[in-house]
Amino acid sequence: MTLLDLLPSIGHAAPRRFDPAIWPTTASSDEDGRLCIGGMPLADIADEFGTPAYLIDETDFRHRARRYHTALRDVEIVYAGKSLLTTAVARWAREEGLGIGVCSPGELAVALAGGLDPSRIVMHGDTTSPDELRDAVAVGVGRLVLDSSLDIAYLAGLARRRQRVLIRVTPDTDIHGHRAVTGISDQTGGFTLTGGHAAEAVRAVLAHPILDLVGLHCQIGSQVCDPARYGEAIRRLIAAMADIRAHHGVILTELNIGGGHAVPFLSGDAELDLDVLAGVIEDALDEACAAEHFPRPAVVVEPGRGISARAGVTLYRVCSVKTRPNGHTVVAVDGGIGDNPRVALDGAQYTVALANRHARTQRRAVTVAGRHGEAGNEIARDVELPADIHAGDLLAVAGTGSYHHSMASNYTMVGRPPLVAISGGRARELVRRETIADLLVRDCG
Ligand SMILES: Cc1ncc(COP(=O)(O)O)c(C=O)c1O
After folding, report:
1. What value does the mean pLDDT of the chain take?
2. N or C, which end of the chain has less CB nearby within 10 Å?
3. What is the DSSP string of 290-327?
4. CA-nearest residue, atom 4 of ligand 1
5. Tens of pLDDT along 37-68?
6. If you write DSSP's letter for every residue of 16-69 in order, what string do you get?
7. Helix 130-139 vs helix 105-113: angle between axes, to the nearest 10 degrees?
8. What DSSP line would sit under 51-115, residue for residue?
9. What is the Å distance from ligand 1's center to 178 Cα?
């Protein structure tokens, strides 16, 4: 037991047990050592809703959205719904003045059900079918981002009124040392600026007067912590816009530089500094627009993780604790790859904490393993947990607000966890737990 655990009253003088860079801004511990979010002990939430459970702190989500507005004053903020979207989350985004980026009919329907004005929706066309494009146009989405020649042709054929579109390009900014590769030529969607592909797409769009080409879009990667890379993307996209003006006499007015802003998952991880990003955007715009004598376009950013990651925590119950012959301890919990696919997908690392009591012993490094009995079915490796951890304890995993609920599966026929929102001193389900009946209802026999 630490001194802080014994004497919580000295908490104000000691480092916080839950690093505010990693955990929701409202995270604290009560006199029993229980992790609380928004003043609510997570142990009580586990009792009410069961485990595993995704928790989302509405206060933290709104705080991050406001932080974007404060830092990036003249920039339009479009929340990337693919990171986490429910009707309530869409409503929070709307109330905080964010647009929403969607990339499927399901996300579109949820954003609309959350009360978002369709004109504030940016729909991404990655591999959209003609029917999906038709539906998006029919509800009046504000902007469609096109990244294939087929989409351009489909859209031109089905639009009945002028539709604002952007073309997604890959600016090839250097991302050495970054795991995720979105934004590199030949790796993902988007037209390359080199080789004339983007220019061809521009020609194709401009050939259809029903399509109103308003700008260019790019997504340069994920977990990007160097703001200079956004500056480089802006310079390249402004140069491309100047080329479009030279060849077609058209002045594009919107520059969407996507999301990908790095957030920390472990104490000490780098984070994209939004204040620095604001300066970089300004400088790059000033410089590039002056060099090309090009009028300043409106800038749009599309953060997902930057808004939703740290608002989320996943709560697990410890099922067993085993010590391997090599002395290493494995703590098995009641969730796993089905609710947290990111560890297996890209080696993501997470911060884990005991959530239901004080630590009564020293800490030691353990592996937190999931229930699915697979190689690689780990939630976290070499995390420090109290040596007396035992079945029935509760573990909280930080930074799981993004790409967990939205990427969950019912692998091994385990129902997906509920998503529980905490706000105003109360917890309520935004999405209920998936039951066996839910699983059977889709099975046609
Ligand atoms: C087009 C686009 N916009 C925004 C995002 C959000 O990225 P992040 O959650 O890393 O901010 C993504 C993520 O893949 C994306 O593809």
Report:
1. 91
2. C
3. HHHT-PPPEEEE--SHHHHTTTEEEEEEEEEEEE-TTS
4. 259
5. 999 999 999 999 999 999 999 999 999 999 99
6. -SS-TTTS-TT-EE-TT-BEEETTEEHHHHHHHH-SSEEEEEHHHHHHHHHHHH
7. 20
8. SSEEEEEHHHHHHHHHHHHHHSTTEEEEEEGGGS--HHHHHHHHHTT-EEEE-SHHHHHHHHHTT
9. 15
- Nearest protein Cα to ligand 1, atom 12: 259
Q: Which residues of 235-274 are buried (b: 16+ CB within 10 A; e: fewer)?
A: bbbbebbbebbeeeeeebebbbbbbbbbbbbeeebeebbb
Residue 231 structure tokens? 């500056």
SS3 of residue 195 by DSSP: helix
State the closest ligand 1 atom to the C-alpha of 188, by its place in the atom list counted from 1: 16
Domains detected in the chain: 14-56+310-441 (2.40.37.10), 125-302 (3.20.20.10)
pTM of the model: 0.93
Rounded Cα distance between 238 and 291, Å, is 10
What would the pLDDT profile of 115-170 be if each residue is shown by its tens digit? Answer: 999 999 999 976 678 888 999 999 999 999 999 998 999 999 999 999 999 999 99
Mean per-residue pLDDT, 406-416 = 95
Residue 189 has pLDDT above 80, yes or no: no
- The structure tokens 């400088």 sit at 283
